[in-house]
Structure formats: structure tokens, C-alpha cells
Design goal:
The chain has 598 residues and is of the alpha+beta class. The strands form three sheets. Strands 3, 4, 5, 6, 7, 10 and 11 form a seven-stranded mixed beta sheet that branches. The chain has a two-stranded antiparallel sheet with strand order 1-2. Strand 8 and strand 9 form a beta hairpin. Helix 15 runs antiparallel to helix 16. The longest helix has 37 residues. It is globular, with a radius of gyration of 24 Å.
């Protein structure tokens, strides 16, 4: 049976030793009183909820899945899911980082991200229910009217209601400009919305009394394409003036998808049959409002894969220590047993270290992005807010795509450690692989994230934001010049930083001649950028570990961090050379292939 221990020690290391989050909080009046002890207390309790309440339900949810009553259109979640959600609400967890004006606790986003990593390790399918609700909260908080905020935000904050995002339709996924759902204006200022949505996570379930759907639709006079999309809030049940629930609205689940993974989450086909909704934001500006939720979801998906990578690693390393099979190539290591632990084999260690390096690198990047969001929302200096928002925009596609790609690699490697036992359900490893696969697809496929990074975030401003991140690398390299202990980390990092400038310029130049060059290079480009970012954080983590060891700290945690950093730079970081070579190979070998597909 699988197990899970919240990685609180590593979270504390990233938060306090690497990012020094409380120093940032002191500059934000809203968070000035948040100290390390408060953060530790919250995360310790959050870890208990994740490991003791949610984790035992993960395999149950996978085995049972959700069921739809086609007569009532009601969906039942797996055994224990609703009771766990009730406990989640009673503990005040939905309100952790929400606005106190609507009943929230007002804690920093970076603390909430740590909590959500643990939830995702414990049970990704369950965590999607509150995760999507938080995205709906963010969108309404940013773009809702005062009346909408007063009506919906307190209930979303408390967890009494949950939320969804309804974008995809049967004929269109990424290209939302093709959507057909119609919104007819009514005399009372509401809209009657008709259409079909698919792949709606948590679209219907039995855990709360009401579900708040954010729906993209077209007004009758809307221009074609993405410039003609509006956003509407459509509750499952109408809400009376006194806040009580009224009649059922015209939105219901017409079917559940049968999926490869995340069986415990209801992935719904939603039918809107004259459903009543109110507009969020301005007419035909719905995508701008929905992007608040979409960007939150993209970072959330990265956290899902980070959680899976961590729990897969924990179980694989525990198994490797206990499983004995054959002898070490350099001679027996435990003569008291008929064979050695498989942990003595170099390739087993490579697989485990790959998962560990990707988990800990992903944690550092994710928490840095969360801290940037805290700065964007709360820092008193407008320049800091703007710079933080710009950096989050650059890093969001990397969080979503690089971390989820890495999780697919890591969970598969961890399953491989188990051999045949990894392929059967008893050990739980094959579920992590199946659950991880969706994260590369939804909230914009990883190819879409790559196009967003290269086409919009980098070439769109001639690499200006990328250069700002590069300045952090330069600062670190300059600070450690002459430090022989840091050379193995900063030398390859500095080299890639220099190569990145030329690499980006080459692709940009070719793209001016042929736009397909961006599409041909984008996926490889994002992985190179991902390694650049991970390399920066691994160098910083190695820097801290070396400092602690030099101070006489004998905690083996720092030795382990240093060893993992060495592995990352020696075995994973060099992937960038082959990626740049394939990106430079251009689009011709892809596009001049008509005979292949004839």
C-alpha cells in the first residue's frame, strides 16, 4: 500500500532559507505580521489533513469513480469524498488566502500553494473540486460586480459552494474563438444561455448545495472569433435575494467522461438549456476576465504534477530500500541477505534522483511564482507590483508545461523502480502515472504553453522579460565568481544563460521569415527555458546548502540537497544541448512532408 509524508522540511527550506518570504511580507502591510512560526503551524495542520484525511481516499476514488443519475442529472462522488469536503470546510481551509472582506483568512498565496501541493500529493482528483472553486473566486474577485461579489464570494470563500470554468465545447478546445454557446439578453438584465460544454471538471457533484459556473458564451451581435466572447456567472440553483436557494437553473450534467485517470473527479458534459446568468466584466471581453481563472488554473496544474512527483518519489525510494534483488556490480553490500537492495544499482538511483530533482526544483519555482503573486497583489510599490506581474506571466507557462512534463517522466520512472509491482494497482504507482498524464493536456496543452512562452512572452517583447530573469542569474554568477565549491553549478548555468540570448535571437530571426519556425521550435525552447529556471533555483539551493555546511551545520538535509543539485546539473541539465540542436533543425523536416501523410 502507498504512503505519504508531507515534505514540510523542504518547504521550510525553500520558504525561509532560499526565498526569505517573511522579509517580503514585512514590506506588505497586509502580511507584515506573518512570521515563520505562523506558516509552520498552518502547514503542519494542512499536512495532517492531506495525509490523514485525503490520502486514504485516493485509491478508493480511483477504483469507484463518479456515478451519474441520468434521471435527476445528479452526480455522486466516491465514498468518503463528501465527508472529507465537509471536514475541509469545517477546518476553514477554503478561506486560507481569500479576502477577509468576504470571510477569508487573508494568508499569503505562497502559504496556500504549499497547502495545495500537499493536497495534490494526497489526492489530485479530490483536490480539483476546491481548486477550481478558488479559480472562480479569483475571477469574480477581479472582475465581478459588487452585487456578484456580495452574492457569490462569501459562499465560495467558506466552501459552502464550489465553482467551475466552462470553456470547452465538442467542436473547439484551445481555439475558443470557435465556440457557439449563445447568450440572449433579457429585459431584467440577465441572460438566457444555451449550448453544450464538455470536459468540465467538477461540473456536477453532491458535496455542496450549489455550484457556481463561469461560462463563456456569445451575445447575438458579437463579432466573430475570440473578440466576441463574453463571460457569465451561472449558478446551478438560482439564489434568492435573501441568499437562500431557489429553483434549479437550466444547466445540468448530460454525461460523465470515462477517463484514463483522475476518476474521483467528475468530468462532465454540461448542457445549458436557457440557463439564467449575469455578465461578468464587459461585453465581448470575457476572455480577459476568464484569463484570471485560467492562469490560476495553469499554476494549479503545475502544483498537481508537483504533488504527484513528490508522492511517487516517496513511495519509490521506500520500495527501493526494501526490495532485494541481485548483487551490486562492485560486490555484495549486505552479506546477511541473499541479495542487495535495488538501491545499490546506478540506474535505480538515477530514476529516483530524477524524480527528487524535479520535485524539489518544481517546488522552488512554484513557491517563487506564488511569492511573486503576493508581491503583485499586495506590495505598496507600484513598480514592484508591475515587475512581479510581468515575471509571473513569463514563468506561468513554464510552471504548467515543464513541471507537468517532468512529472510524466518522474512518475513513470518511479513506477519502473517497482518493476512488475508498479504495473499492478496494489502499490498505487500506476495511478500516479495515469493521473499525471492529464496535466500535460488540460488548461492549454503543453504545446500551447510553449507557443505562449516563445511567441508572446519572449518574442512578443523582444526578450525584455527574459532578460530581466537573466539579470537574476548574472547577479548570482557574479556573487559566486571565484568560489570553487559553486563552480559546478554556476558555470553551466552561466553558459546556458549566454547561449539563451543567441538561441532566442536565431529563432526570432527565422520566425520573421517563416512563422512555422516558432511552432517547430517552441516545445524544445520551453524545455530549455525550464532548465534555465530550474538551474537558477538549484544553484541557489546549492549555495544555501554550502553555506549551512560551512557554518558547521551537520544536518544531513543539506548534504542531500547538495548531492541532488550535483545530480541535476550532471545528468538532467545537459539535455539543453540536444534540445537546442533539435530546435535549430527548423520546420522544413516537419512541414515539407506531404508525401508522408498522403
Amino acid at each position: 500500500m502507498p504512503s505519504y509524508t508531507p515534505p514540510l522540511r523542504d518547504m521550510q527550506f525553500v520558504l525561509h532559507d532560499v526565498l526569505h518570504v517573511t522579509d517580503d511580507f514585512k514590506a506588505m502591510p497586509k502580511h507584515a505580521d506573518i512570521d515563520a512560526d505562523t506558516i509552520s503551524a498552518v502547514l503542519e495542520e494542512g499536512g495532517k489533513f492531506a495525509s490523514e484525511v485525503l490520502f486514504p481516499l485516493n485509491q478508493i476514488g480511483d477504483a469507484q469513480g463518479c456515478t451519474l443519475d441520468r434521471d435527476t442529472h445528479e452526480v455522486s462522488t466516491p465514498d468518503g469524498f463528501k465527508a472529507a469536503f465537509d471536514q475541509y470546510v469545517q477546518g476553514g481551509w477554503p478561506a486560507l488566502s481569500c479576502d477577509p472582506a468576504y470571510g477569508g483568512q487573508g494568508l499569503p498565496i505562497v502559504v496556500n500553494q504549499c497547502f495545495y501541493e500537499m493536497l495534490n500529493s494526497a489526492n489530485q482528483a479530490w483536490t480539483m473540486y476546491p481548486g477550481l472553486s478558488h479559480g472562480a473566486y479569483e475571477a469574480l474577485h477581479a472582475h465581478g460586480t459588487d452585487a456578484q461579489k456580495a452574492l457569490y464570494l462569501p459562499k465560495l470563500t467558506s466552501g459552502e459552494w464550489t465553482g467551475t470554468m466552462c470553456l470547452t465545447e465538442p467542436h473547439c478546445g484551445t481555439d475558443l474563438g470557435l465556440l457557439r454557446t449563445k447568450a440572449e439578453p433579457q429585459a431584467d438584465g440577465t441572460y438566457r444561455i444555451t449550448g453544450n460544454k464538455i470536459f468540465i471538471s467538477a461540473g456536477e457533484h453532491n458535496m455542496v448545495s450549489n455550484i457556481v459556473h463561469l461560462v463563456l458564451a456569445r451575445l447575438p451581435d458579437a463579432p466573430a472569433g475570440s473578440k466576441g466572447i463574453s463571460l457569465f456567472v451561472v449558478p446551478k440553483f438560482h439564489v434568492n435575494d435573501d441568499g437562500s436557494l431557489g429553483d434549479r437553473n437550466g444547466i445540468y450534467c448530460g454525461g460523465l467522461e470515462h477517463k484514463m485517470g483522475i476518476h474521483g473527479n467528475a468530468t462532465c458534459q454540461m448542457v445549458l438549456d436557457g440557463a439564467v446568468g449575469t455578465m461578468v466584466g464587459q461585453p465581448n471581453k470575457g476572455l480577459a476576465a476568464m484569463f484570471v481563472m485560467m492562469n490560476a488554473a495553469r499554476i494549479g496544474v503545475g502544483m498537481q504534477s508537483l504533488g504527484l512527483t513528490e508522492v511517487a518519489y516517496q513511495n519509490a525510494v521506500a520500495y527501493a530500500k526494501d526490495r532485494i534483488q541481485s548483487r551490486s556490480l562492485t560486490g555484495p553490500k549486505d552479506i546477511s541477505k541473499p541479495a542487495d537492495s535495488i538501491l545499490v544499482h546506478p540506474d535505480v538511483r538515477k530514476m529516483l534522483l530524477t524524480a527528487k530533482a524535479y520535485a524539489e526544483g518544481g517546488r522552488a519555482l512554484s513557491l517563487y511564482c506564488a511569492l511573486l503573486i503576493d508581491r503583485e497583489l499586495n506590495h505598496p510599490d507600484a513598480t514592484v507590483r508591475a515587475d512581479s506581474a510581468e515575471m509571473v506571466a513569463l514563468l506561468t507557462p513554464i510552471v504548467k508545461a515543464f513541471i507537468t512534463d517532468n512529472a510524466w517522466t518522474a512518475t513513470s520512472a518511479c513506477m519502473q523502480v517497482f518493476g512488475g509491482h508498479g504495473f499492478i494497482r496494489e502499490w498505487g504507482m500506476e495511478q500516479y502515472v495515469r493521473d499525471a498524464r492529464i496535466n500535460m493536456i488540460y488548461e492549454g496543452t503543453n504545446t500551447i504553453q510553449s507557443l505562449d512562452l516563445l511567441g508572446r512572452k519572449v518574442l512578443g517583447n523582444q526578450g525584455a522579460t527574459l532578460k530581466k530573469f537573466g539579470a537574476h542569474i548574472t547577479e548570482l554568477v557574479m556573487a559566486e565568481q571565484g568560489n570553487e565549491d559553486m563552480a559546478e553549478f554556476i558555470t553551466p548555468l552561466a553558459k546556458l544563460g549566454q547561449q539563451m540570448t543567441q538561441f532566442t535571437g536565431e529563432i526570432g530571426y527565422k520566425a520573421m521569415q517563416n512563422a512555422d519556425e516558432v511552432g517547430a521550435a517552441a516545445v524544445d525552447y520551453l524545455r530549455v527555458a525550464g532548465h534555465l529556471v530550474f538551474g537558477y533555483f538549484w544553484a541557489r539551493m546549492a549555495q544555501v546548502a554550502l553555506q549551512k555546511i560551512a557554518e558547521g551545520n551537520r544536518d544531513t538535509f543539506y548534504q542531500a540537497k547538495l548531492q541532488t543539485a550535483r545530480f541535476y546539473f550532471a545528468k538532467l541539465f545537459p539535455e539543453t544541448a540536444s534540445l537546442m540542436a533539435t530546435a535549430r533543425a527548423g520546420s522544413a523536416v516537419l512541414m515539407e512532408t506531404d508525401a508522408v501523410f498522403a
